[in-house]
Amino acid sequence: MSTGCAKHYLRSLGPLPPPSLRRAHDVRYLVLCAQCGSPTDSRHAVPLDGQHYHGRCFIARFGLRALQALPRAACAGLQLADIGLPAARALLRSHAARRNP
Ligand SMILES: [Zn+2]
Questions:
Q1: Per-residue buried b or exposed e for 59-77, using 16+ beta carbons within 10 Å of the residue's own CB
Q2: pLDDT (tens digit, 0 to 9) for every residue of the chain, 101 residues total?
Q3: Distance 89 CA to ligand 1 centre (A)
Q4: 39 CA distance to ligand 1 centroid (A)?
């Protein structure tokens, strides 16, 4: 898979999806992204070492391969609007390859 130049790819993505605050209870899931400092929903973020990252911020900091190397459960909440279609495809392929070697 190729997303081309990672910086160009990440810049080409639309705006970050805002955290869902449909219910008052949802504020309990708000966390700050360790890379960009914007609020995000911990259910849709990538947890690593006690910190949370937007999917695209994780890719910007550690690279797509590091995201692919994470356990499936860590990436389960990622949104397509966050990481974009090519990265989501690559992630799904890597998870499928690990399940069916
Ligand atoms: Zn971020």
A1: bbebebeebbebeeeebee
A2: 455 677 888 888 988 888 888 888 889 999 999 999 999 999 999 999 999 999 999 999 999 999 999 999 999 999 999 999 999 999 999 999 987 76
A3: 21
A4: 8
Ligand 1 is a single-atom ion; what residues have CB below 5 A from it? Answer: 33, 35-36, 54, 57
Domain residue ranges in the chain: 6-99
Tokens, residue 70: 């994470």
- Distance (angstroms) between ligand 1 centre and the Cα of 100 equals 32
**How many whole angstroms from 16 Cα to the centroid of ligand 1?**
8
